[in-house]
Write a structure and sequence with these properties.
7-stranded antiparallel beta sheet, single chain, 28 strands, alpha+beta
Amino acid sequence: MWLTAGCLTAWHTAGGETDVVGKSLSLPMRSTATTAPRWRWQLLMATVLFALCSTTLSAAPNLAPRRVALRTSCVWTTDGDAVDVKRCLGGTEGREAGVLRALDPFLVFDSYESRPNGGGSVSWHRGFPAHPHAGFDELRYITAGRLRHTDSCGNDAHTEAGGLQVLRTGTGIAHEERPDRRHLVFSGFQVWLNAPQRRKRVEVPVHWVIPAADFANLSIADTILGPRTGLSCHTRAGDRDDATPTSPPPRGWVKVISTAVRGSLSPLSDFFRDPPLTWLHVVIGCAGGHVLTYRTTEVGMTSPNQPRAHVVLYVMHGELLVGDPLQGDDAADAVGRGEFAAAGDGDVVHMWPSCPAQSTSVEFLLLSAPRLMEPAVVGHGFVGTTPAEVAHLNEAFVRGEFLQQCGGGGNAPRQEL
């Protein structure tokens, strides 16, 4: 089995040191009699901590790896004012979205990239003129450039590179998005997350911009990741008891955009409770043979009475391997640059970089949320549970009747749901 970095941290905290040659473990010796009581306490604590970690790992059931069940290279389409958008999920309009329910509650996943057109111009300059929404949460993660948002609730805000914009559309809102033309490059991602039926017609719209500085950026070996995000780092050492992270620490990091644990590492963790959302921006270096494992049950997202969470991936750079690391690279599912993938059935998602000669790392997004198990109908920018509900929303917008209440804006207060 794998020995996690959390056990090693506990050992060092108790005053011990590890010897990764074989399984020998040693404690630092003290030369003076006055330190003997502390030495005995450290020995006792280190022994207990090591036993607890070993017992926990030994008692863990065999966890089935989740393989790639869906993979797509995405398709170029247009949105807004003829803006080129790389659409990986969504696009079903005016009918019950069976294909969308397959990744419930994720409805839309778009990648905004600078795609040169004839004459060297880029379409994103034209932006997204005013249009209505209701019944879902829209998130835009900006990776380059700057995006301006204005809406019918009077909000006027900018999202800089590395920041995230959240729009809880609630009972209805109209908004406009304009990338800053002064920037030469604009890129990012748009995600639509379905809202439960009990929320759709009662929540007032809320707009919120979270700057890059408000998100935690951690090493992939940081022991806080496991209990807070469900993500843990291991080596390719197989199931040996002495498998430990290599030294020096692995080259890689995790930007925590949202987690399923309340109040953990990200302002969004308290905002998205129904359903809880995990969103991680990850880089794994090729050196060191590191594997990241994502397990939703470790953060309480999936329980026996709750449908299993969907896990989706988008590779920004490099190539990601998903599968069982014990079976080697050839048996893994490869997800290449610009590809979108969803994990199938199982318990854990193991991920590691494919490292050909010229590759140094893989960079990707991981998103996960439990299934709502409710119908999802998408049309005219609205999300409802029946075609009649969507038609009613569209008619109300045309008559100007559904834009009646507004919530917070800018630095919107977190909602307890």
